[in-house]
Amino acid sequence: MAPDPDRLAELGLTSYEAKVYLALVRREVSSAADVSRLAGIPRQRIYDVLASLVQRGLASERPGKPTRYAAVSPAFAIERLVIARREELDRIERSGKELIDQLEPEFAAGRKERDPLDYIEVLRDRAAINERFVELQAGIQEEILVFTKPPYATPAQENVEGLVVTRRFRARSVYEYSALDDPAFAAGVRRFVEEGEEARFVEELPLKLVIIDEAIVMFGMEDPVAGRSDLTLAVVEHHALAALLKIAFEAVWAQGVTIDELEARRAPAAAR
Question: Which of 26, 71, 81, 193 is deepest in the core (most CB within 10 A)?
Answer without folding.
Answer: 71
